[in-house]
Amino acid sequence: MFKKICSNTAMAVLLSHTMGASAADTSSDNAFNPALSLILDGTYGNMQRDPAIPATGFAMNPNPAQTQGFSLGESELGISSNIDPEFRGFATFAILSASISVENAFVQTTSLGNGLNLKFGRFFSGFGYLNEQHAHTWDFVDQPLVYNTLWNTQLIEDGMQLKWLAPTDMFVEVGGELGRGLNFPGTDTPKNGSGAATLFAHIGDDIGIEQSWRAGISAHHTRQTDYQSSGVPDLLNTPGGTSNSFSGTSNTAGLDFIWKYAPNGNFRERYVKVQSEYFRRKEDGMLTYDAQTGGANLTDRYIDTQSGWYVQSVYQFMPTWRTGLRYDRLDPGVATLGAQIAGNVISNYAFTPSRVTWMADYSASEFSRIRLQLAHDSSRQGLADNQIFLQYIMSMGAHGAHQY
C-alpha cells in the first residue's frame, strides 16, 4: 500500500500536489495541452467572539481568522502541463472574494534520475506534513492553531527545493530548500542570496496490507527585519494594545507522524487516519516597544520560545461519510526581556491556548464534499468561543492524486 504509493514511477505524485497527470508522464516537445481545474470552496461561519482577536500570547504573530457569516472562502484555479521531456509546470491561483493571488507557480524536473527531483518557483514548503497540502484537501475547515500562529496558515516560499527519494523498500525521503523568506516568520526585504532555509526528512513503510505509517523531522531558519505588530497587550494595559517592532532570527524545529489503517487494504470503503505534528520556535533579537505611536520607543533584547501541537483522527465509516476529531494546543513560552522593555512587555502570559474540533462530511463522489464542523475554542483567555461551520468543496476539471 504505502510502498506502491512511494514507488519511483509514482514519485511526482508523492513529492508534490499535482493538478492533472503525474510528472512521470511525458509529452512531445511541441505539445501544449494544459490540464485545468477549478475548486469551489465556500463556508458559513457562526462564532460568538470576534475572530480577529488573536490567541493569547501570540499577538505578535499573524491571525488568519475565519469569516463570520457566508463567505466565498478560497477557490482555487489550477493549471499544469508538461513543458518538454525535461520539465513540468504547475500554477495555482487562490481566488478570494476581493482578490486573486499566486499560490503556487513552479517548474519541476521530470528526468533527473537517481531519485532526485528539483522544484523552483513559488511553492508550499516541504516543512512538516500539512504544509504542502492545498486547502481543499484539509480534513477540517481550518488549519490547526499552531499552523495559524507560527506560519500564517501555510509556509510559502519563492526559491528552490531539492528532494531525494532513496531506492529502498522502505520509503526514505530527504530534502532541502532555499527561499526568499518573504512570508512570516520572515520579512520580505531587498537582498541578494536567500532569506530562509529548510531541511526535512521522512521515512515510512507498510505494516502488512492494512496499515501504513510515515514520520518526519524538519528545521526552518529565517530572519525578521522590523516586523511590525499592532494591538499587542502590555503591562501598562494601553487601551487597544501597543505597537511593537522585532528584528532577529527565527528558528523552528518540527516533528510529524501519520498512521493509516484500512480493513483488507481497501481505502475506498473504510479507513482510519491518525496524524500529529509538533513545532517549537525560538526567536532571538531586538524588540522595540511602542514603535509606531511616537511614544516610549524603547528597544532591548527579546528571546522567546513558543510551541504548539495537534493530534487528529479521521474515520471513514462508509464510502461517502467521514467524521473526525482534533485537539490543538499552544504554549506562548516565557520571554527573556532586556531591562529597557521589561517594565512594558508581558513575558509570561500563564495561559495555554487550546481548541477541540469535531467534523463530519459527506462526499457524493471524489469531486464534491459537504462538511459540518463544530469547535470549542479556548485559545483566548476569558473568551471561550463555540463555533459552527458549514463548508462545500466542489472540484471541476482535471485533478490528480495528492500526497500520502
SSE map:
Layout: H1 2-5, H2 11-15, E1 35-47, E2 69-71, E3 75-84, E4 87-95, E5 100-109, E6 116-124, H3 145-151, E7 156-165, E8 171-179, E9 196-207, E10 211-232, E11 242-261, E12 271-289, E13 298-318, E14 321-331, E15 336-337, E16 354-362, E17 368-378, E18 385-397
Antiparallel strand pairs: 1-2, 1-3, 1-18, 3-4, 4-5, 5-6, 6-7, 7-8, 8-9, 9-10, 10-11, 11-12, 12-13, 13-14, 13-15, 14-16, 16-17, 17-18
Explained architecture:
- This protein has 404 residues and is mainly β.
- The chain has helices spanning 2-5, 11-15, 145-151, and strands at residues 35-47, 69-71, 75-84, 87-95, 100-109, 116-124, 156-165, 171-179, 196-207, 211-232, 242-261, 271-289, 298-318, 321-331, 336-337, 354-362, 368-378, 385-397.
- The chain has a single domain, classed as Porin, CATH 2.40.160.10.
- The protein is built from three helices and 18 strands.
- A 16-stranded antiparallel beta barrel has the order 1-3-4-5-6-7-8-9-10-11-12-13-14-16-17-18.
- The protein is globular, with a radius of gyration of 22 Å.
